[in-house]
Fold this protein.
Amino acid sequence: MMTIGAFSKACRLSPKALRLYDELELLRPARVDPETGYRYYAPEQLEQARLVAWLRRLGMPLAEIREVRALEPADAAREIRAFWSRVEAETASRRDLASFLVDHLTRPRTGPCPSNPNDPNDPSNRNNRSNRSKETTMLELRCATLSDTGRVRPANQDTAYAGARVLAVADGFGSGGAPASGAAVEAFKFLDDEPLPAGSVLNLLEDAVHGATEAVREVAGPTDEVGTTLTAMVWTGSQLALVHIGDSRAYLLRDGGLFRITHDHTVVQSMLDEGRLTPEEATVHPQRALLLKALTGGGPASAPAPASVPDVRLHDARAGDRYLLCSDGLSAVVPEDTLKETLRTSSEPAEAVRTLVAGANASGGPDNVSCVVADVVSTAGPR
């Protein structure tokens, strides 16, 4: 037997960590002296302890480590791959945010920032100061939204919204799914009321996400069986800020190509990321609707669990872009090639949403279906 001190040196876990893992039943000692309470470990426990130490260095939560330790090596390896795929997806989102912040903070500036970068009468806007006699090109959104119960469900638990600056689709689930999706979207509507310069939108988004989390938890109560997905975009005048959690989606049609700009937070998507499923197998997998992340009840909004923290990122907009936000009632039954063709050929957003919803219902309409289509268009400002 090895003393806790000797075992600590061998496995590179501190005695304090070993005592904690004993209390959590994560790594129990081989023997505890009944009189002194001193812990002793067997040499064959070193491999388990090293595995725990390595997984902690990866940042894996203790609850997941406990599950991994109980698995056979091959199954444990698959779970570690799945965990790291989630970490990489979350890191990619934070990397995009960091890039934006670095660019925003290091961009050369002369004098105070204009209150409106497209205002030719603002003397602090050096571009417009030298071009007051010319028309100013501005970007704006033109959008439409439509939500339908579908052909099978008795009620519609989706919420879709398109305002002056806010676009959102939420797909509720559980007995209170409709109030949950409505509460999440309602928490973003205050962003419609005032201009949103890109430099301050991140702080406002944080407030909106916190409000949505709190609102859903108030609706859901203590149970995490009620909740909602949320995919929302907020227009700043030159960028769209994206907030996403769950399996509703956002797509971008640009220069004739269709790009999905959200990552599904589902079990099936994690299996696709690991190479354990093909795209064809994913479409018929029995757990394709099982979420890894969503806004749910079950805890205080002041301390959200990682499973209720949305992805946040920023997209530069271009004239001619067309965005689609939709619930999985559309994306699960209408192929992406059809989505692309509909978005490419529909002349107006209102025509696009009608065609898309009709397509989902023509494919059986097994779920509620909701979508928002928004065009980025250029307009000429005042002389």
